[in-house]
Amino acid sequence: MITQEADGWQVPEWRRQQADLVTDLDQLCELLELDRADLAAGADPASDFPLRVPRAYLDRIEKGNPADPLLRQVLAHRDERREVPGYGPDPLDESAHTPVPGVLHKYHGRALLVVTGACAVHCRYCFRRHFPYQTHLSGGRWRAALDWLARREDIQEVILSGGDPLTLSNGRLRQLLDELAALPHLRRLRVHTRTPVVLPARLDQELVELLARPRWRTTVVFHANHAREISPQLAMACADLGAAGVTLLNQSVLLAGVNDDSDALVALSEALHEARVLPYYLHQLDAVAGAAHFAVDDRRALALVREMRGRLPGFLVPRLAREEPGEDAKTVLAG
Ligand SMILES: *Cc1c(COP(=O)(O)O)cnc(C)c1O
Ligand code: SF4
What we know:
single chain, alpha/beta, TIM Barrel, two-stranded antiparallel ribbon, binds pyridoxal-5'-phosphate, binds iron/sulfur cluster, rSAM_sf, rSAM, iron, pyridoxal phosphate
């Protein structure tokens, strides 16, 4: 669902990388030197949430390894079709917290804007994989959300989300930030994104300048789940963002077969720290239909966090959290 937006006459490098995609299972297998028969007999070429992997991300997947933790995050699996009790299309009851299209408002002082439905990559565990983006983004895109925000002086923090807000061009982001900057009650800007994890080139100088505006305190929350996703290019871009005064955090999802062992989680925290990013949340999986095969039970999750505590400084241990519909904050289980 990527809409191409021209940024003047020159196509930025990240745009080129974003468009250089693998969407075909046979091509994926060929590039990764995998035999389809090795893919746990489970890869699903006909998923309704299609395979979408930029080659820049593919380069970090180990060739010939059907169990690679990065591969597992992007490869549609037949288990996704299994109906599992308790797993549904809207596990967080987001539709009940939509005051106007494009806004999710659950927590005090913070509002989340759904600014696009596009993502650089399709993550199999995505809790918004069944999200009704068309109802949020139809018609006068953003207008209703901006008008709502203008009236809500109790909101101090706006969170750009989606989809992935950094799939928007710098030009579109600038338009949005200009509108938001005119609302005097907004003190904090937060951007939740996985795009730079997949395409570090997205953090170009123009974006760094946009995010570092002195208008407010900006926090970027990356969504990385594995140490190998923190590439040297991402670390370099983070150094620029950090130097520009942007606070850098990461949230991950605890995913069976991806990061559900303490070595993987410790390595992730260490790699984040090297890149000047602090771990924020480690989320228990949201019960979205199609993702049950990624679930890790709470006992195991708590044991993993205890192991992290024994091996890392406190500031590198993320808060293990779950989102429970109807609560006034995310539920912290540990950390
Ligand atoms: C997760 C979430 C937030 C942010 O919660 P924090 O605990 O501040 O990170 C805000 N709004 C919505 C709707 C959310 O789902
Ligand atoms: S980038 Fe985020 S919103 Fe997009 S598919 Fe992945 S988890 Fe879902």
